[in-house]
From TrEMBL:
UniProt cross-references to Pfam families, sorted A to Z: ADH_N_2, ADH_zinc_N
Entry keyword annotation includes Zinc: no
Cited SUPFAM superfamilies: GroES-like, NAD(P)-binding Rossmann-fold domains
UniProt KW keywords: Oxidoreductase
InterPro entries: ADH-like_C, ADH_N_2, ER, GroES-like_sf, MDR_fam, NAD(P)-bd_dom_sf
Cross-referenced PANTHER family: PROSTAGLANDIN REDUCTASE (PTHR43205), PROSTAGLANDIN REDUCTASE 1 (PTHR43205:SF7)
Name of this protein: Enoyl reductase (ER) domain-containing protein
Domain Enoyl reductase (ER): 53-352
Signal peptide: none
Gene Ontology terms for molecular function: 2-alkenal reductase [NAD(P)H] activity
């Protein structure tokens, strides 16, 4: 449906977050690698015949995979593309359609999907095709950066499609207070599983046990022997490990798995700040125990999104699922918010609020 004109007219300054240059191999990303600029203008109108859409960006998602995009690579096994230095970085976000030449969207629609870290984005036909129209606006729009968007779909695909949980099973979730972990743990409780999570502070451990319903939780920074810690938490072993961390935590989980256990390899944030991968040393334990380790990419499961909404919306509305967000206000605070997830500074899902839509 074409819809030109109205409040989409005119040319305005378009504040943007850009990557200055690619990281030098193995370098840890820093706030100074980004720049927030406000010296470019954008015409608030989509060219007729372009099949594109113009978005006013409202909320932006901070996700670990974005750090990989700060490196230059010709191809990627992660189905992600490098950022372009000097251009706005890209990620998942929520926006309002200001103008549209695309048949799926009209002015005033709310959508979520890939967009630029800028106040306004003009998306091409192919980029617009990948957007999801938001039909359920009784839920906070920011949730579509997380539990009703990429993080929720990641949790749903990894836990239900990869791990195939059964009632009464023993589930371990690393980075359990983060964007994906908090959702996985609550899905496991809805399934009637016993759930333990780990996090990096006393405050986060308390949240897991007292607000998110985990049966037990521990601060991994206070545990000198992770293998012994998991043996203590799971004296009968682990059926399902949802791995957001990799490294030593993955090693500790493998030796504590039960026979026919399942491990969903979702993310390895412990590896992002290392010059070279740490490696996994206990894989031999997976052989005799018939443990299945499977990596997955959320994009392969997007066809399940309508089914996922049917599953998750009722417990959200009924208060059976608690969703924690950490909101940073203003694009100028975007780089700090993004880098902060590397050190676990955030409590819950880290979101950048570009502008709030009343």
């Amino acid at each position: 449906m074409q819809s030109h004109g109205g409040d989409g007219d005119g040319e305005v300054i378009n504040k943007q977050v850009i990557l200055k240059d690619y990281l030098n191999g193995g370098a840890s990303p820093k706030e100074s690698d980004f720049e927030v600029i406000a010296n470019r203008t954008i015409k608030l109108e989509v060219p007729q015949g372009s099949n594109g859409v113009l978005l006013k960006n409202l909320y932006l998602s901070c996700d670990p995979y974005m750090f990989a995009c700060m490196n230059k690579f010709e191809s990627s096994t992660m189905d992600i593309a490098s950022f372009t230095p000097g251009s706005p970085i890209r990620g998942y976000g929520v926006g309002k359609v200001l103008d549209s030449d695309h048949p799926k969207f009209k002015r005033g629609d709310f959508v979520w999907g890939k967009t630029g870290w800028e106040e306004y984005s003009i998306l091409s036909t192919s980029e617009a095709e990948a957007l999801f129209k938001i039909d359920h606006t009784d839920i906070p729009l920011s949730y579509y950066t997380g539990i009703l968007g990429v993080n929720g779909m990641t949790a749903y695909a990894g836990f239900f499609e990869i791990c195939c949980p059964k009632k009464g099973e023993y589930v371990f979730v690393s980075a359990a207070s983060g964007a994906v972990g908090q959702i996985v743990g609550q899905f496991a409780k809805l399934m009637g599983c016993y759930v333990v999570g780990c996090a990096g502070s006393k405050q986060k451990v308390d949240l897991l046990k007292n607000r998110l319903g985990f049966d037990e939780a521990f601060n991994y920074k206070e545990e000198p022997n992770l293998k012994a810690t998991l043996t203590r938490c799971f004296p009968e072993g682990i059926d399902i490990y949802f791995d957001n961390v990799g490294g030593k935590m993955l090693d500790a989980a493998i030796v504590n798995m039960r026979r026919n256990g399942r491990i969903a390899l979702c993310g390895m944030i412990s590896e992002f700040q290392k010059d070279k991968p740490e490696g996994v040393h206990e894989l031999i334990s997976a052989i005799g125990k018939r443990v299945r380790l499977e990596g997955f990419i959320m994009n392969d499961y997007l066809h399940l999104y309508p089914k996922y909404l049917d599953f998750v919306l009722p417990p959200i509305r009924e208060g059976q699922i608690v969703y924690l967000e950490d909101l940073a206000y203003g694009l100028e605070n975007g780089p700090s918010a993004l880098i902060g997830i590397l050190s676990g500074r955030n409590i819950g899902k880290q979101v950048v609020v570009v502008t709030k839509e009343d």
